[in-house]
Amino acid sequence: MSVRAADNSWTDVAAHFAATAGLAILPFGALEQHGPHLPLATDTLTAERVAAELADRLDAVLLPAIAYGETWNNAGYPGTVSLSPATVTAIAVDIGRSLVHSGARAFAIVNGDWGNRAPLTEAVRILNDERDIPAIVLDYPGMDDAVARLRESRPAFAGLNHAEEVETSIILAISPGLVHPDRYESAYPDFPDDFGVRPMQLHPFSASGVFGDPATASAAKGDAILAATIDASQQVLRDFLAANATA
Questions:
Q1: What is the dihedral of CA 164, 166, 168, 172, to 10 degrees?
Q2: Which of 16, 86, 153, 183 sits in a 20 to 30 Å window from 105, CA-based?
Q3: Do residues 127 and 107 touch, judged by C-beta distance below 8 A?
């Protein structure tokens, strides 16, 4: 079983690290618009659920989630609060280095937001290159395959799952009381040819912040997507821990 760092004493955390593989798991989310029907914490809630399940399966220490991320592309919607890429990298590096003093011997970050990908990859590169602590970032392995199997609605753009069927299904599975079905709306904007190639803010394309259609969302789909993501992430982390143990 896991130990939730925020709910336990320093002696509990130290003892757990000493008695296990020494893995610490950090959910890294965002405070970002997800249409009128989903909470700003959608990415954080998803990362927390995946990280908590992984921590239980791998006897890890679960760290409190980072509730902000690099969300510049959604900054045009009120309520979104974005960090710079350098800040995201610095937070992850500082936490990784600090964990060493707690007895952690491996560090995994569960990333909940697309904008965090590059800065978190840079963070784990720094931690590994400088031999601070073995580190890895998980960008939801297994999720894309599950989405391809389960999706009924047409995506607004290849690889863009934002406030539509997929994310709505996930939050219906995690916290259905935070979803407002009476506010569902679909949006299929016309994108320029270089969309996805260069950085663009999203508010000029969708007034609501929805990209796709949430109408076919369901908690059952959300549960299936989360289960596939957690299973694939667990295997990645098992390989990571095995490699670290023999290094």
A1: 160
A2: 86
A3: yes
Find out whether 128 and 134 touch, Cβ atoms under 8 Å: yes
Q: Structurally, how many domains does the chain consist of? A: 1
What CATH number did the domain enclosing 125 receive? 3.40.50.10310
pTM, rounded to two decimals: 0.96
Pairwise CA distance, residues 110 & 107, whole Å: 10
Strands 23-28 and 106-111: parallel
179 φ/ψ angles, rounded to the nearest 5 degrees: -100, 140
Model pLDDT for residues 83-141, shown as the tens digit of each residue: 999 999 999 999 999 999 999 999 999 999 999 999 999 999 999 999 999 999 999 99
Q: Per residue in 44-67, pLDDT tens?
A: 999 999 999 999 999 999 999 999
Domain span including residue 108: 3-246
To the nearest 10°, the Cα dihedral for 185, 191, 194, 198? -40
- Tokens 């959604």, residue located: 74
